[in-house]
């Protein structure tokens, strides 16, 4: 199975900060990498699919990059509504494993 | 509007069985690939199973041989039959629609809780 490793597992940041979350796959997954945001008590929400593409309605301060085995989610200017947990997921080969999550907290 | 609504969760004893349902609206389960994802209390997301639009299926190693994913096209509903349940299967179970050539999960339900305890 493909293992997905996210870092950091948590971070504290201030409104307006630039935030970067990384996700590493245990093997090449091409660009079959997606990012989800989850707020407490809510279902996950798709943010970015296939490494780069913003889901409809997602603010442009979110961006994704990478290929192969190393990927990044960036938030250019953190907003109050962005405090949440973020997960990466690969869909290159089943099982379509998730990373362990990155909790973004208010500093 | 695309929507999925899970049901069927509850309290079950270890070794017991439960069938989860996921009613879809705004799209057809037969024409789309679907997944089940679970989340244990306070933990991260854990992919469980998928069924492709063509009907083939896949499972996480942790549930293989115990869980079965299926769909009823006439009811536009996805199912997850769970048997030989263990305490570690306790989680909120989400149904999600898979989309595109890269199978991202673009529509999620609110989940149905499963508790395995004596």
Question: Can you walk me through this structure?
Answer:
The complex is a heterodimer of chains A (107) and B (118). Chain A has 107 residues and is an all-beta fold. Helix content of chain A is 0%, strand content 48%. Chain A has strands at 4-7, 10-13, 19-25, 33-38, 45-49, 53-54, 62-67, 70-75, 85-90, 102-106. In chain A, the strands form 2 sheets. Chain A has a 6-stranded mixed β-sheet with strand order 2-10-9-4-5-6, with no helix packed on it. A 4-stranded antiparallel β-sheet of chain A has the order 1-3-8-7, with no helix packed on it. In chain A, a hairpin with a 6-residue loop joins strand 4 (33-38) and strand 5. The radius of gyration of chain A is 13 Å and the shape is globular. The mean pLDDT of chain A is 97. By secondary structure, chain B is mostly beta strands. Chain B contains no helices and 11 strands. Chain B has strands at residues 3-7, 10-12, 18-25, 33-39, 45-51, 57-59, 67-72, 77-82, 91-99, 104-108, 112-116. In chain B, the strands form 2 sheets. In chain B, strands 2, 4, 5, 6, 9, 10 and 11 form a 7-stranded mixed β-sheet that branches. A 4-stranded antiparallel β-sheet of chain B has the order 1-3-8-7, with no helix packed on it. The N and C termini of chain B lie far apart (40 Å). The mean pLDDT of chain B is 97. Chain A binds chain B through residues 1, 31-32, 34, 36, 38, 43-46, 49-50, 55, 85, 87, 89, 91, 94-101, and chain B through 35, 37, 44-47, 50, 58-61, 94, 98, 100, 102-106, 108-111.
């Amino acid at each position: 199975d493909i293992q997905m490793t996210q870092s950091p597992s948590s971070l504290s940041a201030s409104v307006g900060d630039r935030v970067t979350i990384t996700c590493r796959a245990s093997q090449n997954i091409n660009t079959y990498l997606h990012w989800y945001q989850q707020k407490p008590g809510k279902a996950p929400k798709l943010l970015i699919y296939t490494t780069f593409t913003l889901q409809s309605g997602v603010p442009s301060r979110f961006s994704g990059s990478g290929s192969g085995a190393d990927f990044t989610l960036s938030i250019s200017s953190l907003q109050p509504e962005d405090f949440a947990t973020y997960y990466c997921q690969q869909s290159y080969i089943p099982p379509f494993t998730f990373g362990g999550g990155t909790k973004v907290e208010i500093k | 509007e695309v929507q999925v609504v899970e049901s069927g969760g509850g309290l079950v004893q270890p070794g017991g069985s439960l069938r989860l349902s996921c009613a879809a609206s705004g799209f057809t389960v037969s024409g789309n690939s679907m997944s089940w994802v679970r989340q244990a209390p306070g933990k991260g997301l854990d992919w469980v199973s998928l069924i492709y639009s063509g009907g083939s299926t896949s499972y996480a190693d942790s549930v293989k041989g115990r869980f079965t994913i299926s769909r009823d096209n006439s009811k536009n509903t996805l199912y997850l039959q769970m048997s030989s349940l263990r305490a570690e299967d306790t989680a909120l179970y989400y149904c999600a629609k898979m989309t595109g050539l890269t199978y991202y999960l673009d529509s999620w339900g609110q989940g149905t809780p499963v508790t395995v305890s004596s």
